[in-house]
């Protein structure tokens, strides 16, 4: 996917890119950072996310907390939780599968956070078993694409039912075509066809006279249609 945006200057221990409308922040917080330095890094990240939504913040934070599967919560984990509370981001990590396996043991220190508006679109998050040539495991997660905007609602969608011209409605619906495709797209096309048919065959509740939506519908066709139905 093409990168639509990136920082104009580099920052220490994190960077970001805008891809497919989502701001992706990649973080590496070395274990050598003092608590003050770790807090400063998180402050810089939060400032970097200002007015950048929706967003994902992911990386190696070297922070421990029971919220993401660690056995204990340590000070860096508490600092991280407090900082992300101001970011209004949700943790995507699920389970307690280690994301890091080293000579001295294993831990869950690779974390993924998403802004509150983006988190509901997360469909999966998992620690991959693929070999990465690293002591960190690959993290695989999926974000559903944004739903296409629905049809614009008109100020009035009420029709005068007694004015219904059943022949006109039947012809309009008989000529309505909904090609195969994604379910939501088919539903949108079907609703558009029904709305057009109702506009053509009924007057609005305001009492205005209905107008046929197709130029070729005439009173002569209406009479012929009625004759065919009676035959």
Automatic annotation (TrEMBL):
Supply the InterPro entries for this chain.
Endo/exonu/phosph_ase_sf, Endo/exonuclease/phosphatase
Listed Pfam families: Exo_endo_phos_2
Record domain Endonuclease/exonuclease/phosphatase: where: 22-139
- Name-wise, this protein is Endonuclease/exonuclease/phosphatase domain-containing protein
**Organism of provenance:** Trichogramma kaykai
């Amino acid at each position: 996917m093409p990168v639509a945006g990136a920082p104009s200057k580099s920052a220490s221990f994190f960077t970001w890119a805008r891809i497919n409308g989502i701001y992706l922040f990649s973080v590496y917080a070395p274990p050598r950072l003092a608590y003050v330095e770790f807090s400063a890094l998180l402050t810089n990240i939060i400032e970097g996310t200002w007015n950048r939504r929706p967003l994902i913040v992911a990386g190696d934070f070297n922070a421990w907390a029971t919220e993401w599967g660690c056995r204990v919560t340590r000070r860096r984990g508490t600092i991280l939780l407090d900082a992300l509370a101001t970011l209004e981001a949700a943790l995507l990590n699920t389970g307690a599968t280690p994301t890091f396996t080293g000579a001295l043991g294993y831990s869950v220190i690779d974390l993924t956070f998403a802004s509150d508006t983006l988190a509901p679109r997360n469909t999966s998050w998992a620690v991959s078993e693929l070999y990465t040539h690293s002591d960190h495991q690959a993290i695989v997660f999926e974000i559903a694409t944004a739903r296409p905007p629905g049809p614009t609602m008109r100020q009035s969608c009420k029709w005068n039912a007694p004015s219904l011209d059943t022949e006109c409605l039947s012809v309009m619906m008989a000529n309505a075509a909904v090609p195969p495709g994604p379910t939501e797209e088919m539903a949108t096309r079907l609703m558009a066809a029904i709305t057009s048919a109702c506009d053509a065959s009924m007057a609005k509740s305001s009492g205005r006279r209905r107008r046929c939506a197709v130029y070729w519908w005439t009173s002569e066709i209406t009479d012929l249609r009625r004759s065919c139905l009676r035959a």
